[in-house]
Amino acid sequence: MSSHKSLDPGAVAGDFFHVEDLLDDAENAVLQRIRTFLAEEVAPHADELWEKGESPVHLAPRIAELGITGLPEDETGTAARSALLNGIVGMEMSAVDPSFATFFGVHSGLSMGSIRVCGSQEQRRRWLPAMTRWEKVGAFGLTEPLVGSGTAGGLTTTARRDGEGWVLDGEKKWIGNGTFADLVVVWARDVADDSVKGFVVEKGQAGFSASVLEGKISLRGVQNAHLVLDGVRVEEGNRLQGANSFRDTAQVLKVTRGGVAWSATGCAVGAYRAARGYAVQREQFGKPIASFQLVQDKLSTMLGNITAAQAMCVRMAQLTEAGRLTDAQAALAKMFCTSRMRETVALAREVLGGNGILLEHGVARFFADAEALYSYEGTRDMNSLITGRAATGISAFV
After folding, report:
1. CATH numbers and ranges of domains, the chain
2. Mean per-residue pLDDT, 341-349
C-alpha cells in the first residue's frame, strides 16, 4: 500500500485541478469566511433540519453579514463579486448542504434576479435593498401542479386587468421558500393577449395561501410550497414592468441554471468528500477499504466527473463576465453537471455500502438531494432539447 505522503490536498478536497487558484487573494478571503460560516452555522444542523423538513430561516441575519447577497446596484455598499467567485461560493454551499444552497439561491438568484432583470428602476429600488439585507425573503412562483416543463406555452395561472390593477387566479407548486417568503414573484398568463407577465405578491395579501408540500425525499431542508391564488388583487405597481413574455422569464432562468450547474457540482463534491473520508477509515479484511482497487476506481471516476463539471462551470463564469453566455450554454451546463452529479452520488453511496443510506455517514443526504437538483430549473431532457436546437438550428419542441 502506498504511503500517505502521496496525498494530494486538491484530490482530498475535490479540487484536483486547483480551480480555487483562479481566485485572487481578496476573493479567496471571502471564500474562507464563507467556509467558516458553513462549518460553524450550517454543517452542524444540516442533518437535523433535513430530517425535520425545516429551512434555515433563522440564519438570514448571519447570511446578510457575509456580504454575498445582491449586486452593487442593488444596495449602496454591496461589494462587487466576479461570476467565478459567485459560482465557487455556490459550489461550496452545496458541498456542505444542497438545501441551504437552494434556500439561498431561490432568494438571491430567482427572486432577486427576476426583480433585477424585469423590474423597473423604481421597483428595484423598492425591493432589492431590503432583500440584499435579508430583511425581506423572496420566492419564485413559476411551476404549477399541472405545468412543469411546459411553462413557456401553457401557464394556467391567469392575470386579468381590473381597473388600475390586476387579479391573479391559479396555483403554483414546488415553490421554494414559499411558506415564509415576504415577496413571491408570480408568473401568470395575461388573459387579454396570452403573454406571460410577472407580479410581486406580498405576504398577507387576501386570497393568497401557501402550504408545505409533505413527503419529500429530496432537499428536505427546503420548504417547498403549494400556492393558491384566489382572486389576489395586485397593483399595477407590483407588475414587473419589464416582464412581457416568457423570453423575459428565460433571461432569469439562464443565469440561475448556471447557478444550478455549480450547485450540482458542489453536491457531487460533498458526496465525494464523505465517501473518500469513509474509505480511508473503514476497514475490512484488516485494511482500509480505500486500499481496494474497486473502491479507488469509484473515487477516481467521481473525481473525474467533478473535475469535468468544474471546468465547464469555470468557462461558463468567464462567458458570463464577458456577457456572452447563451441560453443553450447554460442549458448544457445544467444538463451535464447534474448528470455527472447523479452518477457521482450513486458511486459515493456504493462506497459506503449499507451505511450509505444513513444520514450519520454523510452521503445519504447528498444522494437524495441530487434528485431534486437533477430535475428543477429544467429537466435533463428539456435542457438537452435547448442545446440540440442550438446545435442543429431545428426546434424539437412540440
Report:
1. 4-132 (1.10.540.10), 138-245 (2.40.110.10), 247-392 (1.20.140.10)
2. 98
